[in-house]
């Protein structure tokens, strides 16, 4: 009997979509899988079936790369074989040997699709009997097995595996529009960006450099966040604009009520991000704001921040507890163990937890916002992150 090793990719939510949408999403998913493998210079061959993709090549490496591609529920390293119960049973023995031991609680999970002559229960029975011949004295326990083997008889062949590597879920990157994230040196905004990417949105970033008002480590950290995020979108550019925010701080501190500093600051950031976004086809802005985290993130102040631009501001981690955000940051690689000095020197001693649009607009009346925004945009440096490296993009001449 001929067997081979393949990585099987399982696709989730895509199957809720109409045929037309499914086709587009599958095409994006396959494109992204190829880009991820190409970025690692891995040789492979793919086969596509309804709801499944099989990838042949260095299975361990392929599985670890592909499990990071958005839109995939999980991946399994599996043995492929003929689709007769006998072939599947033989493959199951080779997979189970060395892992299943006498006395262990064991379960066979069988599936059958478009293959006639036996039911999935019969397939499970045939496989269990055959395994018993080689590795006897297991205890069948379908509720709480210590070792589980999955067998599938499909029209295109038999598939046997015993473990599932969790994927990221979500939707294929590139199927859900484009957004501009306000990307800082912190923990929250990279996680917000990643959650949008996981849902299929292509993300670019803007980092507002506070200069002498910001901690000296902030720019490098923010750029490093972009670099790491680019590893989640292999083969694509992750663009980041770095904007000089010092002139705004100087003007705002000279003439506005300091209690509202953080609200002026966030409204300005939104406006600059929006101005930069208006140059491309961006559908939304994204921030890492989180309900009640700091004074500027009370629901009342977020309302005032929201009113600064017409473009929708999406806040994916609005309701997360810090531990939940940190857990994701650790998983995706943006959690910096020793971030260094990232504190903002402009934060007032008693920042206001409440404001109104009227009051803030009145205060902002003393600023030449249009000019500040224009100058900020003109100061923007473009950086491009791609496949885990980042560099400054030279200006086109
Ligand atoms: P984070 O929230 O990302 O951990 P932070 O705690 O430094 O960063 P907050 O004061 O909580 O920032 O700001 C809320 C949100 O505003 C951030 O999540 C981010 O989207 C945006 N933001 C803050 N500082 C900057 C910056 N320097 N450049 C761009 N966006 C920023
Ligand atoms: Mg924050």
UniProtKB/TrEMBL annotation:
Q: Where does ATP bind?
A: 182-183, 266, 288, 297
Supply one GO molecular-function term: tRNA-uracil-4 sulfurtransferase activity
EC id: 2.8.1.4
Which SUPFAM superfamilies does this chain map to? Adenine nucleotide alpha hydrolases-like, THUMP domain-like
Catalytic activity reads: [ThiS sulfur-carrier protein]-C-terminal Gly-Gly-AMP + S-sulfanyl-L-cysteinyl-[cysteine desulfurase] + AH2 = [ThiS sulfur-carrier protein]-C-terminal-Gly-aminoethanethioate + L-cysteinyl-[cysteine desulfurase] + A + AMP + 2 H(+); [ThiI sulfur-carrier protein]-S-sulfanyl-L-cysteine + a uridine in tRNA + 2 reduced [2Fe-2S]-[ferredoxin] + ATP + H(+) = [ThiI sulfur-carrier protein]-L-cysteine + a 4-thiouridine in tRNA + 2 oxidized [2Fe-2S]-[ferredoxin] + AMP + diphosphate
Where in or outside the cell it occurs: the entry states:
Cytoplasm
Residue ranges of the THUMP domain?
60-164
Task: Tell me if Nucleotide-binding is a UniProt keyword of this record.
Answer: yes
Entry-linked Gene3D superfamilies? 3.30.2130.30, HUPs (3.40.50.620)
Q: In which pathway does it act?
A: Cofactor biosynthesis; thiamine diphosphate biosynthesis
Top-rank taxon: Archaea
Which keywords are on file for this protein?
A: ATP-binding, Cytoplasm, Nucleotide-binding, RNA-binding, Thiamine biosynthesis, Transferase, tRNA-binding
Function of the protein: Catalyzes the ATP-dependent transfer of a sulfur to tRNA to produce 4-thiouridine in position 8 of tRNAs, which functions as a near-UV photosensor. Also catalyzes the transfer of sulfur to the sulfur carrier protein ThiS, forming ThiS-thiocarboxylate. This is a step in the synthesis of thiazole, in the thiamine biosynthesis pathway. The sulfur is donated as persulfide by IscS.
Family statement: Belongs to the ThiI family.
HAMAP family found in the cross-reference section: ThiI
Please give the name of this protein: Probable tRNA sulfurtransferase
Organism, scientific name:
Methanocorpusculum vombati
Q: Which gene encodes it?
A: thiI
């Amino acid at each position: 009997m001929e067997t081979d090793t393949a990585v099987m990719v399982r696709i989730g939510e895509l199957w809720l979509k109409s045929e037309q949408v499914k086709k587009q999403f599958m095409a994006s998913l396959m494109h992204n899988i190829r880009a991820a493998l190409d970025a690692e210079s891995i040789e492979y061959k793919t086969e596509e079936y309804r709801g499944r993709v099989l990838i042949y090549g260095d299975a361990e490496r392929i599985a670890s790369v592909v499990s990071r591609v958005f839109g995939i529920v999980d991946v399994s390293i599996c043995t492929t074989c003929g689709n007769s119960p006998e072939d599947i049973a033989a493959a199951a023995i080779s997979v189970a040997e060395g892992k299943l031991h006498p006395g262990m609680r064991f379960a066979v999970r069988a599936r059958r699709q478009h293959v006639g002559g036996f039911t999935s229960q019969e397939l499970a029975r045939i496989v269990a009997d055959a395994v018993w011949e080689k590795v006897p004295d297991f205890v069948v326990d379908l509720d709480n097995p210590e070792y589980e083997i999955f067998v599938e008889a499909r029209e295109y062949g038999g598939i046997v595996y015993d473990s599932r590597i969790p994927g990221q879920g979500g939707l294929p990157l590139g199927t859900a529009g484009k957004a501009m994230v306000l990307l800082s040196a912190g923990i929250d905004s990279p996680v917000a960006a990643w959650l949008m990417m996981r849902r299929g949105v292509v993300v670019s970033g803007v980092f507002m450099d506070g200069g002498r008002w910001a901690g000296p480590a902030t720019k490098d950290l923010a750029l490093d966040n972009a670099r790491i995020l680019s590893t989640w979108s292999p083969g694509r550019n992750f663009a980041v604009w770095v904007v000089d925010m010092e002139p705004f701080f100087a003007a705002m501190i000279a003439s506005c009520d300091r209690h509202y500093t953080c609200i002026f600051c966030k409204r300005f950031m939104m406006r600059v991000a929006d101005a930069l976004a208006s140059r491309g086809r961006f559908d939304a802005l994204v921030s890492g704001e989180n309900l009640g985290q700091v004074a500027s993130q009370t629901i009342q102040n977020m309302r005032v921040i929201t009113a600064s631009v017409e473009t929708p501001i999406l806040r994916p981690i609005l309701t997360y507890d810090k531990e939940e955000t940190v857990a994701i940051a650790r998983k995706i690689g943006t959690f910096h163990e020793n971030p260094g000095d990232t504190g903002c020197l402009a934060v007032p001693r008693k920042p206001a937890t409440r404001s109104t649009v009227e009051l803030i607009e009145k205060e902002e009346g003393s600023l030449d916002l249009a000019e500040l925004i224009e100058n900020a945009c003109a100061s923007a440096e473009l950086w491009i992150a791609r496949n885990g490296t980042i560099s400054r993009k030279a200006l086109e001449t």
